[in-house]
Design goal:
The chain is mainly β and 125 residues long. Helices cover 0% and strands 46% of the residues. The chain has one domain. It is elongated, with a radius of gyration of 21 Å. The N and C termini lie far apart (56 Å).
């Protein structure tokens, strides 16, 4: 196998995986005991033709895609005189723009927009 700029390759012309870049930005809001986050993931297209003598499929093609995920956390400390200390709630929306994409090596389209909610409470003794 050859190498090109640190990316593994099956042969001299085709990369073994697409380039994927992820950037995360976080905004802390101390007055509200909250965090707001955004994650952008960009993946390049992928096209690889396998050796016909192998048992692998003859072609693997994935289009490029860009995803936007938004999520927030609220963990109150001094609300109601500290009565909510230990409470944490998280909400997130993956794939906000509902992009139809195929992750590398998945073989199928990923689920569309996905909303997640989690509420937890923990108390130290």
């Amino acid at each position: 196998m050859g190498r090109d700029q640190g990316q593994e390759r099956f042969d001299d012309d085709q990369p073994a995986s697409p380039d994927i870049v992820t950037v995360v930005a976080t905004l802390k809001i101390p007055e509200a005991d909250a965090l707001l986050n955004a994650r952008v993931t960009a993946a390049g297209s992928f096209d690889h033709t396998y050796d016909p003598a192998s048992n692998d499929p003859s072609n693997e093609t994935r289009g490029s895609y860009t995803l936007l995920d938004l999520y927030a956390t609220w963990a109150p400390r001094d609300v109601l005189g500290g009565a909510l200390n230990g409470l944490r709630s998280d909400i997130g929306v993956d794939n906000v723009t509902d992009v139809d994409y195929q992750p590398y090596a998945a073989g199928v389209s990923a689920p569309g927009r996905n909303v997640k909610l989690r509420v937890s409470y923990s108390r130290g003794w």
